[in-house]
Design goal:
Number of strands: 0
Strand content: under 5%
CATH architecture: Up-down Bundle
Helix content: over 70%
Shape: elongated
CATH class: Mainly Alpha
Radius of gyration: 21 Å
Order of helices and strands: HHHHH
Distance between the termini: 37 Å
Number of helices: 5
Oligomer: single chain
Length: about 160
């Protein structure tokens, strides 16, 4: 039995999403409560991206396990790639924003830097899962079905033959 790297990456993505969400929400809360200006859009973006990735994890893992007929691997690859792009844009934008600040001290600055670092790690996890899933899906071409699908169709054909 092959080692399931995708499941480990999904667990990392889940953990990183909560970490980035918590750190970014802390920065947004600090701007809302302690300053007179609105929180930067870069930080707001990094609040929205983990929420989106949690919904994506719900699709990729939930549907593949509990409703496999509705699971399409090509859509899962697109979802993974889309999340990788979102995290890439988010951590680059926040890093550029933090670099442009005149001073950056205290807990809020450390939280923003940590959110940037964990967003970069999330980007790596989503990109790796998209690559691994692509290798798995496209290994035999687009028309080749997986062994699980072949077994399912064989069982259906056997049942249909017995009924006839």
């Amino acid at each position: 039995m092959a080692f399931n790297w995708i499941l480990i990456l999904r667990a990392q993505q889940f953990i990183y999403a909560f970490i980035v969400l918590g750190l970014s929400a802390y920065v947004v809360n600090w701007y809302t409560m302690d300053t007179r200006s609105a929180s930067p859009s870069q930080v707001n973006f990094l609040v929205a991206v983990p929420v989106m990735s949690l919904f994506s994890l719900g699709y990729t893992e939930g549907v593949s396990r509990f409703a496999p007929r509705f699971y399409k691997p090509v859509i899962a690859i697109g979802v993974d790639a889309f999340n990788a792009i979102l995290y890439f844009g988010g951590f680059i934008a926040l890093a550029v924003f933090l670099n442009g600040l005149l001073f950056c001290r205290g807990n809020v600055c450390g939280s923003a830097r940590a959110a940037t670092a964990f967003s970069a790690m999330s980007f790596g996890a989503w990109a790796a899962s998209a690559a691994l899933l692509s290798l798995t899906v496209f290994k035999g071409g687009l028309r080749k079905t997986s062994p699980r699908t072949q077994a399912m169709y064989a069982a259906e054909m056997k049942d249909a033959a017995q009924r006839a």
